[in-house]
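FORM 7B: Structural annotation worksheet

SECTION A. Query
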Amino acid sequence: MLKKGVKSRVVQIDSQETWQKITSNPMYQVSHVIVYFTAAWCKPAMMMNPLFEEQALIHKDVLFLSVDVDEAKGMMEKMKIKAMPTFIMMMMNKNEGEVIDKVVGANPVEIKKRITAFIHYRHPKSDTGQNNVGFNRLRRDQLQADHGYEGSNG
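SECTION B. Predicted structure
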């Protein structure tokens, strides 16, 4: 749970249209994105919410998205999600998300380890040859402002 007064850094995806708008934005090409698939009825997924919020606060140069599969109908099929929670680490490239890693289940130690490894991943299509974690906080903050995302505290 976030401390009182701390805004969430996680962008909530509430529809396929929102997903498309964000993932097709050219501003986010070759950027690190971590997507958390969850459902309000799934206790293991709910237990992972604080960890995901914490990781978003720690790794400010990465875009963290949360998809409630009951709100964003069809996203489970689109992303081939079979269980919750599922964490997908992907690079945005040419309006497509390239899945780099996927973790299924509520294992905090493994999820932290895989997020750390992903953040140091260097995309082969990078123009700079660097690790491209410089997602650019301004861009993510602008995305949140443009789409009215305030985040959540719980």
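SECTION C. Observations
The chain has five helices and five strands. Residues 12 and 34 are 12 Å apart (CA to CA).

SECTION D. Sign-off
Analyst initials: ____
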